[in-house]
From TrEMBL:
This is Iron-sulfur cluster-binding protein. The lineage of its organism: Bacteria, Pseudomonadati, Pseudomonadota, Betaproteobacteria, Rhodocyclales. Residues 301-331 form the 4Fe-4S ferredoxin-type domain. Keywords: 4Fe-4S, Electron transport, Iron, Iron-sulfur, Metal-binding, Repeat, Transport. GO terms for molecular function: 4 iron, 4 sulfur cluster binding; metal ion binding. One of its GO terms (biological process) is lactate metabolic process. It comes from Denitromonas halophila. The keyword Transferase does not apply. It comes from the Bacteria.
């Protein structure tokens, strides 16, 4: 996927005025949030499992070389091959080599954010391969020629009517609007692709060092068909996704679906351990795992190591008010929302990513729901500090910060300025309780009205409540 973060502000404004996008986002906001809360409340040990999961990931990251070597040895013993890729270009080269050796023409793909990270589809199509996404959401956005807008629901930005239009145009069939009929139509079209693909590519939610297994969790079963019917199965995953044992896996499986979609568990949890063995009725003849670094090893031992605990559940973006207002495409790369605002600057570099961490309100909802307790607001704040240290902060913003500091360090001046400002804003509202525009910063009211202050500062209201003079 092409990196487009420098245009964040422009895309964000466009998203706020996109009626179809706003309709699609409004249909999903409550579902993810409410279901996650219900699923967590119904499991008394949920918070303890979050602690355990974070501890397991920290242990692995502190001993990552050991567990990667153990995983590689287990995969090799099972007849598979492990390839370590330094960056996206290296990963593409490895996968293209495997496909060429297999004399592949058609490639089916299960859902894999790492394959998006390495721009794999573009590379495969550029070499003449037919690439077919088999996850329903990924298939929809492939037809639309768009990148995913969410890491677990890639077509969350599409309405049912938009999907109906895409299917009617691509499949040359009568337009359907019933959800079940649309799913059935996609299943019918994709079925033949599974049986004729030479290579199947999937992601890897977890890599078990104890057994050399790759584990995928899905709700459609498309990943199972992708990895068992093709002659060659390629797993794409990040180096940080390895975990020690199957016992550890059970911890993550109990929190992943609950955090992502509010389900007790996914419909399918599939283990792959090497190629087909004697006596197996199906399975690939070759099994390859491509492990991508792409800047991850630089995060080890740094202030940002906590980010490598991420299990890609999407809970942070489901609860993010910024993501909920603009969707995923505004972020300009594979990973949107709070986790993307941390990962994109770290992987793609600070140049061109200035707006991402600064778009966050630091409200802390992402941290409160993260199943592995990643302190996302702290990491975003640290990136802002790094931007300031590298003199990337715009001149006007620096001047505003200096003025703010000068006033904030002088309480009497601060409270005087606060009283004046609150009264001016209250008078501008003309008793309507909201502001349609702000002087000097129209961005705050460009897409919504801003609640107006009542005319008294918080300190004045607090003192009145307590009866203080």
């Amino acid at each position: 996927m092409e990196f487009r973060s420098p245009e964040f502000k422009t895309r964000a404004v466009h998203a706020l005025h996109d009626a179809n996008l706003q309709k699609a986002l409004s249909n999903t906001k409550a579902g993810f949030v409410v279901k996650r809360a219900q699923a967590a409340a119904e499991m008394p040990e949920f918070e303890a499992l979050r602690d355990t999961a974070a501890e397991i990931k920290d242990h692995v990251l502190n001993n990552l070389d050991h567990y990667l070597e153990k995983y590689e040895a287990a995969v090799t013993a099972a007849g598979g091959h492990v390839h370590f890729a330094t960056d996206a270009e290296d990963a593409r080269r490895i996968i293209l080599g495997i496909c060429k050796k297999a004399n592949a023409k058609r490639i089916t793909k299960g859902k894999s954010m790492v394959s998006e990270e390495m721009s794999l589809n573009e590379a495969l199509i550029g070499e003449g391969y037919e690439v077919v996404e088999t996850d329903l959401g990924e298939y929809i956005i492939q037809l639309a020629d768009e990148p995913p807008s969410h890491i677990i629901a890639p077509a969350i930005h599409k309405t049912k009517d938009q999907v109906a239009d895409l299917f009617a145009a691509a499949h040359n069939k009568p337009r359907k609007t019933d959800r079940a009929a649309l799913v059935a139509e996609a299943r019918e079209v994709l079925r033949e692709k599974y049986f004729t693909a030479e290579v199947g590519i999937t992601g890897g939610n977890f890599l078990v060092a104890e057994t050399g297994s790759s584990v995928i969790v899905t709700n459609e079963g498309n990943g199972d068909l992708t990895q068992t019917l093709a002659k060659v199965h390629i797993v794409t995953s990040g180096i940080e996704r390895v975990i020690p044992s199957l016992d550890d896996l059970s911890v993550f499986l109990r929190i992943l679906a609950r955090s992502a979609t509010g389900q007790e568990t996914e419909s399918y949890t599939t283990f792959s351990t090497g190629p087909r063995r004697d006596g197996d009725i199906d399975g690939p003849e070759e099994y390859h795992v491509v492990l991508l670094d792409n800047g991850r090893s630089k995060m080890l031992g740094s202030r940002f190591q906590d980010m490598l605990r991420c299990i890609r559940c999407g809970a942070c973006m489901n609860h993010c008010p910024v993501y909920g207002s603009i969707g995923g495409h505004a972020y300009g790369w594979v990973y949107p929302g709070p986790m993307g605002s941390v990962l994109t600057p770290l992987i793609k570099g600070m140049d061109g990513t200035y707006d991402l961490p600064n778009a966050c309100t630091l409200n802390g909802r992402c941290k409160s729901v993260c199943p592995v307790r990643i302190p996302l607001p702290d990491l975003l704040r640290e990136i802002r500090h790094n931007q300031f240290r590298q003199d990337m902060t715009p001149k006007r913003q620096k001047q505003a910060l200096k003025l703010w500091r000068y006033v904030a360090e002088r309480p009497k001046l601060y409270h005087f300025a606060e009283r004046i400002g609150v009264r001016i804003l209250a008078s501008m509202a003309n008793g309507k309780g909201k502001l349609r525009s702000l002087p000097f910063d129209p961005g705050w009211t460009g897409a919504r009205d801003l609640p107006a202050p009542t005319g008294r500062t918080f300190l004045e209201l607090w003192q009145a409540k307590r009866g203080d003079k």
